[in-house]
Amino acid sequence: MLRALLLLGGLAPALPAGPHWAYEGPHGQQHWPEGHPACGGRAQSPIDIRRQRVQLDPSLPPVRPVGYQRPGTPAFTLANNGHTAVLVLPPSLRLQGLPGGFAAAQLHFHWGRPGHTGGAEHLLDGHRAPAEMHVVHFDAARYANASEAQHHAGGLAVLGILLEVGADPHPAYDNILSHLGSIRYAGQTTAIPSFSVQDLLPPRLDLFYRYNGSLTTPPCFQGVLWTLFQQPVRISLAQLEQLQGTLYATEADEPEPQPLVDNFRVPQELNQRPVLSSFPTGTEGYSTGEIVAIIFGTVAGCLGLFLTIHFVAKRTRARRAQDHDVVFKASSRRGPSDAGPRP
Ligand SMILES: *[C@@H]1O[C@H](CO)[C@@H](O)[C@H](O)[C@H]1NC(C)=O
Ligand SMILES: *[C@@H]1O[C@H](CO)[C@@H](O)[C@H](O)[C@H]1NC(C)=O
User: Is residue 17 in contact with ligand 1, taking CB distance under 6 Å?
Assistant: First the structure.
């Protein structure tokens, strides 16, 4: 039953019951590739986005959610799958502005532990936000559902939203967080009133990083098109603590309940993958023209400095020669050190 609720939520009962995995311990993330070979691939997620190495692509269109505000269903299913809290989304939620006809499948969270600040998966210049939400979509134009789409390059598109702590509670997040108490234990599900999923997103949907990566949990399938929004969403500290402190990774009847904490994967190697940004980050790498100009400017500058030193030294020597009343006929134009053999 638990397996049926793996990462693609209730939409994926056909997922193979893969080997058990965890974030720490004998089945921890460094062992994932043993049972899930894709986890050892070269295009894995998450990554640390180094803003200096991001490439500006102003042609990237803004992400446009369609049907997010009115999901057209009275209730959503919220589940604890032992790894995260998953909210199953209806495919009537569409995403435009991406190469494909993407429909929503589910959203879920990654977080740290009470009293610790870091819990997000994607890093920005090494900074780990307190939590991260992923909204998973599949290409409904090409595939029947997310479990089929996940096997194909470009079959899934995930929106990543970094959660930071602010002064005020975020009302849209309460639609989910206030129900976590009903799914404390792995395998539990509850129906919650539907709400505008758009309200969970940051205001600026035109500011994002884009790269090709993978699912951040086993089976770690690659070919996921990632969109990480530049703007974080701010929730209150009390809301973050609800996320960090309510759930268990174990089922209700287990004698030793394990808190569901620190469910984030370490950053993966970029391996030459481009990371695009829809907006100027202010730290763009230099263009070829700029590099040529910099090299040219540096060479010209060095030459100028060399000539200045050369002529200052020459004049100094000339002065000294006069002061000492030593007359070198030729040295008024050329210093003694220049008098070596000539080619
Ligand atoms: C997904 O689609 C495939 C292919 O049509 C089908 O065999 C499978 O049962 C579907 N899975 C779910 C969870 O609906
Ligand atoms: C992602 O991969 C697809 C298919 O290989 C490619 O067309 C696309 O340009 C890649 N996108 C990015 C952002 O690298």
Answer: no
For ligand 2, atom 10, name the residue with the nearest CA.
212
To the query of whether residue 324 is one of the catalytic residues in this protein, the response is no
Q: What are 243's two structure tokens?
A: 């996320």
- Specify the residue with its C-alpha closest to ligand 2, atom 13: 211
Rg of the Cα trace of the chain? 29
Provide the 3-class DSSP secondary structure of residue 258.
coil
In the predicted model, is pLDDT for residue 12 greater than 90?
A: no
Please give the Cα distance from 194 to 192 (Å, whole number): 6
Which amino acid residue places its CA nearest to atom 13 of ligand 1?
12
**Which has more confidence, 226 or 313?**
226
Cα(first)–Cα(last) distance of the chain, in Å? 86
Neighbours of 191 (CB within 10 A): 12
Q: How far is CA 331 from CA 166, 259, 307, 318, 343, in A?
A: 74, 85, 18, 7, 19
83 by DSSP, 3-state: which?
coil
Please give the distance, rounded to the nearest whole angstrom, from the Cα atom of residue 141 to the centre of ligand 1: 14
Point out the ligand nearest to the CA of residue 55.
2
Phi-psi region of 143 (alpha: psi -120 to 50; beta: other; left: phi over 0): beta
Closest ligand to the CA of 60: 2
Q: Is 241 a pocket residue for ligand 1 (Cβ < 6 Å)? A: no
- Quick one: which H or E segment has residue 79? strand 75-80
Q: How far apart are CA 60 and CA 73, in angstroms?
A: 32
The reply to whether omega before 219 is within 30° of 0 (cis) is yes
**Reported pTM:** 0.81
